[in-house]
Amino acid sequence: MGRRLTMQPRSLCSGACPCDFCCPLAVASCPPSPCAVRVLFEPDRRGAAAASLLIGDDYASVPVAVSGTGASLHLAAASALDVGPVAVGMSAGASLLLTNDGLDPLALTGATVSAAGDLTGPQYAASLAGCPATLPVSATCALAVRFAPTTLGPHSQLLTIASSAGATIVQLGGRGVTTGLGLAPPTLTSAPPPFAGADARIAFTGTPGASFACSVDGSVAAACASPLVLSGLREGSHEVLVVERGASGEQSPPVAARWTVDTTAPGRAVVRSTRKGQMAVFTIAPAADGRLRCRVDRRPFADCGPRVTLRNLRPGAHAFEARLRDEAGNVGPVVRVAWRVVVATTVDSAGR
User: Fold this and answer.
1) Eight-class DSSP state of 4
2) Looking at the 3D structure of the chain, how many domains does it have?
């Protein structure tokens, strides 16, 4: 009876097999219990490949269909990443760009760090959270690396990135430095409010003539000067750490500026109304993404509750408007209800 064996996609190689498939270890005999035949798949071209594996015994031969797919897989990354000086007991992040410069999609399966002779133990951590499980052709993603030195001095360790193209090795480097006992943290003189737009300005000061380093959203700290101006920030949480650096490489504890970029306007308020004579009642549905603001007859908007009652309205045209305003100052669309108040008049028998 025929059998079928399907191999996983493999990267192209030099072609150690005379054809796409071979059995480097022949099985001379097989005991009564099950045994295995090892088949090596080494495609020399892209696309589907197939062969027939003939397994024979003293009585008959059984063909087994073998198939696989040849793929052009290659992961490009820098051979080394230097995080720079980081104070012992603190941490700093860096990004390593990964690019699929092969001809087929690439599966990213893991990232691990080994001490590689560094007797101080693990000093780095790596995460593929910012990368998809499968990296499309020509696509790039950022692998996150965090350096948290536990001892002084240089730390050199190896990062191994596992993918369907094999293992990619990157040399990680950084230096643990002392926290300057005589260096006070810088002072923030200007920072974004808790909620802000896509641009930010951070001003700071420290020891006269001192140099500073800034880390933005976990990036490697780099030399910076006050004010630090950022633009085009994505929506979400942001953090800037500022340290003062001494002449010998020591650095102060950091001072942090943290805020959230929010440029999305709240939704539309839902307003229901009941009007009778010179009285009107407006009910506004509770809002989860903003604070209610209302106004009557073009007066300025002001905070209001979910129920607004208007009494003794003068005859004529009136308008009630409501909108939502979030903590970042974004305002939603205005909901407007317009109506007229008509007061019935009584005429006596004399026509008055």
Assistant:
1) E
2) 4
